[in-house]
Amino acid sequence: MSNSYTPPAAGDRAGPFAIPTGLLIGDSWIEPAGGKRIDILDPSTGGTLTSVADGGVADGIAAIDAASAAAAGWAATPPRKRAEILLACYRAMMDEQEWLAQLISLENGKAISDARGEVAYAAEFFRWYAEEAVRINGEFALSPSGANRILVQYQPIGIALLITPWNFPAAMATRKIAPALAAGCTCILKPAEETPLTAMAVAEIMRRAGVPAGVVNLVNTSDPAAVCRAILHDPRVRKLSFTGSTEVGRLLLREAADTVISSSMELGGNAPFLVFDDADLDDVIEGAMVAKMRNAGEACTAANRFYVQRGIHDRFVAKLSERMGAMKVGPGINGDTQCGAMINQASIDKIEWLVSDATSRGAEIRLGGKAVDGPGYFYPPSVLANVQPGSEILSTEVFGPVAAVIPFDDPEEAIALANATEYGLAAYVYSGDLAKALRVAERIECGMVAVNRGLVSDAAAPFGGVKQSGLGREGSHHGLIEYCEAKYIAVSW
Ligand code: NAD
User: Fold this and answer.
1) 162 Cβ contact list (under 8 Å, min separation 6)
2) Hey, whose CA ends up nearest to atom 11 of ligand 1?
3) Quick check: is 266 catalytic?
4) Which of the following is catalytic: 98, 118, 266, 397?
5) Assigned CATH for 4-267+469-490
6) Ligand 1 atom nearest to CA at 193
7) How many Å apart are CA 144 and CA 424, to the nearest integer?
8) 268 C-alpha vs ligand 1 centroid, how far in Å?
9) How would you label 352-386 residue by residue, b for 16+ Cβ within 10 Å and e otherwise?
10) Who's near 392: CB < 8 A, 6+ residues apart?
């Protein structure tokens, strides 16, 4: 048995269980072969929450052994049974919702309201894929020559390595684990080293809910490059699903090339938020608050660049500054916090660099614009107006609560500006003319567009990017197919 961490009790629920802080290999939580542990920090205080296992290459290989031993049995488990286990995971996670949300707030720093939203979103992937597990339909056709029948069956692709970021430590894990299990694959989860406690809690909930030994394994490590390289070079592993930065995504695609591993990539974003003169300002502000401030801006879908038509521009800047300025900044765990801590000092440094670059090129600070003194890593909601072309903040994800606003006159100009990025994940369009908004949405180079709303994420919808924002889709039926191979059988009868 490994060490454990018991988060603070939440509300009047029975209370959290002791989260094992080792590595989940097969049916047990173990300490890493090298005996190392690493500290987990609380971004709201800069203090240490606890320590967790720090695995190495040998542990990664042990996880493949366990996933491999369980693979045939799980692939042969009837879809209905896999569905029931996933549904049990959904229910178990919702039962633990409140303390899980508090745990996310503690190790990630996000506001408790954001954390509650994340737990519900994360659990929904279990429910959605419980429903999908029994709908993995094949195809059947007569060959055009008439000579034979074409039979196509979707088989589990094999052992999957799932690598997740720190900004949604529960949802990014379940968005991968649930479709992998629904498809009949076993997996190894490699959580972000900043937030492994949430992943450990989710894995333990799944184990208790009846997921068989070896189907889900978890290896935390402070040396992800070495551990993931070893895993990706083992021929038993057939799938890589990664969510994180574009830079690390490129490195992993190179690693995966050596063994020709199927790769799904959910990478960085640089979302434009387009507001046309004919939009309803109150609706726009509601949407902008969600698109910018959910998770304090630490979201790949976060609006990074607000392009606002001249006729509504000044009112938009004033109202957005007023709303963002009224937000309560503080430790995520406090009930009234609306904008929690950033993940670490490096994050604050990056925001400060982007803001000072923008102001040195002529942007005006309308709100905030300066980090809050510690302890903890806080940056206040900030609005920059008249951000000039060439400013770094227009091409680099700020990943924080800073809205960069740029006026425009001509819709064609706005579309060109929106597309002037190597990224293509999410975009937002606001207009009172739905046909116009849809025409614009069709021309934005990205995987997802929110029209007259500030949120795109939905377990039932295909989530993913184009250009350097990624490859493949998560969520919906598309997310399931990423874990399947189409097996074609030519039949004569
Ligand atoms: P990151 O790329 O630094 O880390 C992501 C994961 O990759 C972590 O688990 C990390 O340990 C691991 N990693 C780092 N180097 C590695 C290596 N050489 N080999 C193997 N694994 C390695 O990203 P982050 O800072 O944790 O997350 C923020 C980024 O994630 C942002 O760019 C954000 O846009 C992106 N993101 C994208 C989505 C999406 O769905 N497209 C969702 C959330 C976050």
Assistant:
1) 173, 176, 177, 180, 187, 188, 189, 190, 241
2) 192
3) yes
4) 266
5) 3.40.605.10
6) 11
7) 38
8) 8
9) bebbeebbeeebebbbbbebeeeebbbbbbbbbbb
10) 353, 354, 357, 358
CB 255 within 8 A of CB 228: yes
Atom of ligand 1 nearest to the CA of 190: 9
Note the pLDDT of residue 1: 54
Output the pLDDT for position 179. 99
Query: Cα of 308 to ligand 1 centre, how many Å?
Result: 30
Q: What is the full DSSP assignment across 116-172?
A: HHHHHHHHHHHHHHHHHTT----EEEE-TTSS-EEEEEEEE--EEEEE--SSSTTHH
Give backbone dihedrals phi and psi of 453, rounded to 5 degrees, phi first. Answer: -155, 160
Best mutation site among 118, 164, 167 for ligand 1, i.e. most ligand atoms within 8 A of its Cβ? 167
What backbone phi and psi angles, to 5 degrees, belong to 69? -65, -30
* pLDDT on residue 15: 62
pLDDT number for residue 7:
84
Residue 493, pLDDT score: 86
Q: Which atom of ligand 1 is nearest to the CA of 164?
A: 9
Q: How far apart are CA 326 and CA 451, in angstroms?
A: 26
pLDDT, residue 374, reads 87
Nearest Cα residue to atom 21 of ligand 1: 224
Domain with CATH 3.40.605.10 in the chain: 4-267+469-490
Strand order of the β-sheet with 149-156 is 139-142, 149-156, 484-491
**What are the pocket residues of ligand 1 if the criterion is a CB atom closer than 6 Å to any ligand atom?**
163-168, 172, 190, 192-193, 224-225, 228, 243-245, 248, 251-252, 266-269, 300, 397, 425, 465, 470
Catalytic residue among 89, 185, 300, 339: 300
With tokens 């935390």, the residue in question is 220
Q: What is the mean pLDDT of each run of 10 residues along the chain (493 residues)?
A: 79 72 98 97 97 98 98 98 98 96 97 98 98 97 97 98 98 99 99 98 98 98 98 98 98 98 98 98 98 98 98 98 98 96 98 98 98 96 98 98 98 97 98 98 98 98 98 98 98 93
Distance, CA of 306 to CA of 301 (rounded, Å) = 13
Q: What is the DSSP letter of 192?
A: -
Which residue out of 114, 121, 163 has the highest number of ligand 1 atoms within 8 Å of its CB and is therefore the one to mutate?
163
Q: Say which CATH class 271-458 falls into.
A: alpha beta
Residues in the chain: 493
State the span(s) of the chain assigned CATH 3.40.309.10: 271-458
